[in-house]
Amino acid sequence: MSGFLGRYEYQMDPKGRVSLPAAFRRDAEDGSFVLLQWERPYLTLFPQRAWETVRERLLEHRRSRSDAGRFLRRITSNAVEVSPDKQGRILIPSWLQEAAELDGTLLMVGAIDRIEIWDPEAFRRASPEESAELEDLAAQIFG
Hints:
Elements: E1 7-11, E2 17-19, H1 22-27, E3 33-36, E4 43-47, H2 48-64, H3 68-77, E5 79-82, E6 89-91, H4 94-99, E7 105-110, E8 115-118, H5 120-126, H6 132-142
Antiparallel strand pairs: 1-7, 2-6, 3-4, 3-5, 4-8, 7-8
């Protein structure tokens, strides 16, 4: 598996359903996901295998820090399990749509082990401009 790569624009229907790109469905082994907002302004869709890693980190954080309960509650209360229906659509609950300011067209961005769901305009605003720092980072990663 090469991971989740690329970006795809899709329309969300009035009920909050949106199709997952076929490539993303293929790379999600068992087809189930956890959808949440842990960072604004977008949503993150974790396939089950990636969520297990995050879940273990959250539990370890809770065990090692006395103040972690509030953080854990914020994360888990903003999470929902989703599975594509027969048409390959997932349902984005209205409260997550509002949190990420999603309406109509969505941008799904592959982020290797997870999928980000953005409002297309918010994604354009958040995309970094070319800079020497980014060029240095790219050179370190790609050689």
